[in-house]
Every structure is written in structure tokens, then in C-alpha cells.
Amino acid sequence: MNKILLIVQREYLSRVKKKSFLLTTFLVPLFFIGLYVGTFLLTQKSFEDSKALVYVLDQTDSVQQQLTTNERITYAKSNTELQEQLKEVKEKGDKTSLLIIPEDFFQTRKIEFLSSGKPNIKIQSEIENELEKILLAHAYKELNIDADKIKNINTQVSTSAKEITESGDTKDSDTRIAMGIAMGLSILIYLSLFLYGAQVMRGIIEEKSSRIVEVIISSVKPFQLMMGKIIGIGLVGITQFVLWIVLSFTLFTVATNTLINKEDLQNQMLEQANVENAELSSSSALAMDIQTALNGVNVAELLICFFLFFLLGYMLYSALFAAVGSAVDSETEANQFTMPITMPLLLAYLLSFGVLINDPHGSIATWLSFIPLTSPIAMLVRIPFGVPTWQIIVSFLLLVGGFLVTTWAAARIYRVGILMYGKKASFKELIKWFNYKD
Predict the structure, then answer these.
(1) Neighbours of 438 (CB within 10 A)
(2) Cα angle 172, 174, 178; round to 5
């Protein structure tokens, strides 16, 4: 046991001291925060740059007064001849345009929009929306319908979704939040298992290529070496996760409070959502909806299950990657073996965006969450939708059993393959190594 701890210590310290680990750990949060701040600032600048002046040549004498100037468009009545106005628009550049509303506008619903270059699609679309409202108001007036009464009719439906628990009580439930969490967990688990499992394989290939492993094997058993590497690199992954979460939260808070105006952020969110009713779409109402939805998610259960299924899933796949690393002399040769062992993981990942989310309690989702090679992703995708406790326990026990069997099989291949040089491994050869007696 002490030898395994020594190997764990060696693997952990040697990797966390690497420049690549430090750069990745600190640069990834900076990259995402930079992306967040950059997106906001560029969006804000695009709004400022898109401010336009639109001259209106209104031949109906009634439409121009109904056009409302806002932050992006300033409407101005054209008091000059058409040719002179066109010349002025041409001289002022692409932020100045001319809107010609013909006398028969209410019958033909046709306008002309003239600018010196290609017209701005967003500005053009907004003008069309304004004119459509004017046409609608005109139609109401023709039909003697009170437009204000029509506007005050609110047809928006607000659903308060609840689910009945096993005890017969009800609790808040929101499928959208569950789907978001499930998809996030699916991506996180898939990338983590694949990346850190590949690190175990790469580390073994490097030591095998440099013959360092021969020296190590003279002091420890191959199984101890394999387990030490798996646990050590797993701890590196957990350390990186914790640092990413802490750094991202800290940087996000600092960036939001110092670099971004909260009022501008709220206005941009409302603009992007294209919501007209500011009362219903205010940030406080949105925050309350999200908070209510999160109340329906058992966060403690989710965090505990994430930790357990990630840890066991990582150890299971790392044992397989370790066996592959011991059987080959280079990463190029490893491709033929890594594809078969990662297929179950890839299958669960792909199904998580369709089958598992659409039918989390169906037979396919249930069976996938019991099979050890797919359960780390499948079960975590299902948990936000509510899974019976007995299914989580059975899935966890099967994963423990799968991990023990996989580690035992991988260790039998590892003990022989780690000392094999220059011999091209095949599946037949791996079976032979597995059957070698101690």
C-alpha cells in the first residue's frame, strides 16, 4: 500500500508542477471570462455602431408622425426635394437612409428604403416592424376596434410545473432546467473521462519508451504501478476541476462588477430575447423562475452522485487505457485499441442529447444507466429528472463490480505488456497475455 501511495505522490507532484498544467489551469478560466467580456463589449459596440438616421419622405402625411425614434433609429422628416435628399444621404454614408412612404401605402403596403450602400438588415427589419404596427392600428380603426383594448389582452400562459414525490407530496419541477443540467454533465463527464484516461495511457507509453518503467518495476509490482498512476492522475484532474470552479467564479464576479455595466447587460439580454413585455421579462422575474426551477433539483444528491460516478468511471476507463498503453510503443499504435474501448462512452454521450433526455425513464435509458461502461454518463444525465434511489444504488454497485473486474483484467494484460518491446500487439496477443500465469 505504501508503494502505491509513493507512486500516487510521484504522479501527482510531477504533473501539477508542469508548466502545461499551470498554464492550462489558469488560462482556461481566463479564456472563458475573456470570451464572456469580449462578447458583451463587441455586442455593445455593434449596437452603438448601428445607430442610424432615417429621413422619412411621407406622402400619406400620417405615417411619419407615428414612427417612434429609439436608441438605434432616429427618424427625421425630409423637407427637401428628392434629388437633394438622395445626394445628402449619399454624402453622409451608410448610417443615413431615406424611407419613402407612397401615398397608397395602406393599400399596397409597399415602401422604398434607400441607402448609400447595402442596407442594414436589422435597421430594415425594425422599420418594417414599426410600419406593420401602424398598418395594424389603421386596420383596427377601419373596423372600429379599440386597439388599446386588444393590446391589454394578455394571452401568455405561465405553467407552474410540479411533480408528485414517492411520499405523495408535490415539489417544483422544471424540465428545461433538468435538460440543461443533464447536457452539461454529459459533456463534462465525457471530456473528463476521455482526457484524463488518455493521460494515463500517454504517461505509460512515455515511461515504457524511455525504459524508466524497468527500473520502477524492479521495486514495485505492475499492479501497484498501474493503480498508483490511475489514482495520481485522477487527483490531478480533481485538483484542476476545483481550481477551474474557484477561478471561474472569482473572475466572473470581478468581471461582472468592474468591466460590465449591469444595466447594459440587462438591456442586451432583453434585446437579444426580443421580448416586448419588460415587466414579465425583467431579470428579477427571470431569476425567480430559475431559482424556483432549481428548487426542484436535489443539488446535494447531484453533487454526491457526480463525484462517485465520475471517480469510478474514471478509474474504470483509466484501467483500460493503462492496459492499452502497456501494449503499444507509441500513441499511433494505440488508436486501434482506444477506439473499441471508448465506443460505449461515445454511444452514451451521443444518446444523452436525444434518447436519454427525451425519455429518461425508458428502458433504453434505464439499461444504459446500469451497464458499467455507459452508466457514468447515462445515470448522471437521468438524475436531474428524478431517479428512484434503488436504481442509483444498483447502478453504483454494478459500476463498482465493473471497475473491479475491468481493473483485474487490465492488470493481467498490463503486467506482461509493460515489459514487451518491439512486438506489435494485436487483440489475439492481448488475449494470450491475459491468459499468462503469474
Answers:
(1) 4
(2) 120
Please write the tens of the pLDDT for every residue from 21-75: 888 888 888 888 888 888 877 877 766 666 788 888 888 888 888 888 887 788 8
Cβ atoms < 10 Å from Cβ of 429: 16
Q: Look at residues 36, 99, 89 and name the one whose alpha carbon lies nearest to residue 252.
A: 36
**β 52-58/96-101 pair status:** parallel
Whole-angstrom distance, CA of residue 399 vs CA of residue 395: 6
How far apart, in Å, are the Cα atoms of 292 and each of 101, 161, 173, 368, 387?
A: 49, 10, 8, 30, 20
Contacts of 214 (CB under 8 A, 6+ apart): 419
Overall size of the chain counted in residues = 438
Q: State in Å, rounded, how far the first CA of the chain is from the last one.
A: 20
Kindly state the DSSP code that residue 210 receives in the 8-state scheme. T
The Cα 406–Cα 401 span in angstroms is 8
Taking residues 257-283, what's their average pLDDT? 56
> Helix, strand, coil proportions of the chain in percent (round to 5)?
70, 5, 25
Q: How confident is the model at residue 370 (pLDDT cuts 50, 70, 90)?
A: very high
Which residue has 514495485 as its cell numbers?
A: 220
Total-model pTM: 0.64
For residue 436, what are the CA distances in angstroms to 172, 409, 412, 433?
Answer: 57, 12, 8, 5
How many angstroms separate the Cα of 134 from the Cα of each of 112, 147, 305?
16, 11, 56
How is 267-293 classified by DSSP, letter by letter?
A: HHHHHHHT---TTTT-HHHHHHHHHHH
Closest CA to 150 of 158, 162, 139, 159: 139
| C-alpha cell belonging to residue 122 | 436589422
Confidence of residue 173 (pLDDT cuts 50, 70, 90): low
| Residue-wise burial string across 305-314, b where 16 or more C-beta atoms lie within 10 A, e elsewhere | bbebbbbbbb
Return d(Cα 40, Cα 259) in angstroms, integer: 10
